[in-house]
Amino acid sequence: MHSERSTAVLPPVTADAPSAPQPPRRVPRTDVRAHRRAKRDPGSSRLLTLGATLLIPVVAVVLWFVSTSNGWISELLLASPGQVWEQFTSRLADGTLVRDVAVSFRRVLAGLGLSILIGVVLGLISGLSRWGHRILDGTLHAIKAVPFPALIPLLLIWLGIGEALRIGILVLAATFAIYLNTVGGIVGIDPKLRELAATRGVRGWRLIVTIVLPGALPQFLVGLRLALVISFLALVFAEEIAPEEGLGYILWRAAQLSQTDAIILVAVLYAIIGLVISALVTLLERVLLPWRRGFTS
C-alpha cells in the first residue's frame, strides 16, 4: 500500500489582493524651500536683497554721523558727512570732480585694454602650446611674485613721467590676472571638444575662434573682474606720481593738506565706481553666458 501524503494548497494571489499600507512619502525639505521660493513675490525678493546689501553701509553712515555730530570724534581726524557732502557739491559745481573721474576712467580703460590684449595673447600661447607654457609660465609667475610698486622706479626710468608711466603701471599690475585665468580656461576645456574639432578638420584660427575662446570665456570673465579690482588699486599708486589730475590727484592733495573730507570723498567714489563696474561685468556675463544664469538660479 502506498501512503498518501496530504499537502496544503495555498490560494492563488490575485491582482486584486490588497497590498500592505505604505507610509506617506515625506517631501524633501529642499523641495519645500524651492516651492516657497517659486511662490515668493519677485519684487519683495529684490527688496530684501537690496536691504541686506545696504544694511552695513547704512549702519556705518548712521554711526559716523552720530559720532561726529556729538563730538565723540574730532572733525580734524574724521570729517562729518555734511563736510563730505559740501566737498562733493563744490567740486561738482566747478567741474573738477567730473574731469578727475573721467581722467581716471580713461586711464583704467586704456590700461585694462592693453592688459586684455597682452594677457589673452600670452594665455593662448601658453595654453595651446606645451613649449609655450614651459617658456612663458615660469617667467610670468616670477615677475608676478615681485610687487608691482617695486618695479615703478624702473618704469619711471624707461617711460618717464607722464601718461605712459601711469598706464604702464596699470598694465603691469593687471595683465597677470588676465593671463592666468585665460590659461586656466583653456586647460579646462573638455578634450572631447578638441577631438571633435580635429575629426572635422577645424584647426588654427578656426579652432581658436570656435572652440578655445568660447570655452575659456567663463574663466576669462573671472580674470576680468580681478583685473578691474587690481587696476583701481594700481591707479592709486599711478596717479600719485607727479599728479596733475585724476582721483589720485585729489587724494594726494588732500593728504598734503590734511583734508579728511576730500579723502573720504575719494574713497566713497572708488567704492561707487567699483560697484558700477562689478554690475557691468555681471551684465556682460549674463549676455555672453545666458546658460550660466539658468544653471545658478
Set down the secondary structure blueprint:
Layout lengths: L28 H11 L2 H28 L11 H14 L1 H33 L1 H16 L6 H8 L3 H25 L3 H9 L5 H34 L8 H11 L2 H29 L1 H7 L1
Q: Which percent range fits the helix content?
A: over 70%
- For the record, the count of structural domains works out to 1
Task: Specify the structural class.
Answer: mainly alpha
CATH topology: MetI-like fold
Please describe the biggest sheet, giving its number of strands, its sense, and whether it closes into a barrel. none
**Can you name the CATH architecture?**
Orthogonal Bundle
Query: Low-confidence segments, ≥5 residues, pLDDT <50?
Result: 1-8, 13-17
**Tally of helical segments:** 12
Q: What is the gyration radius calculated from CA atoms? A: 31 Å
Give the SSE order as H and E letters: HHHHHHHHHHHH
- Percentage beta strand: under 5%
Tell me, briefly, the overall form: globular
Number of strands: 0
Structure description:
The protein has a single domain, classed as Orthogonal Bundle (MetI-like fold), CATH 1.10.3720.10. Helix 3 (81-94) crosses helix 11 (260-288). It has 12 helices and no strands. Mean pLDDT is 82; it is low at 1-8 and 13-17. It is mainly α.
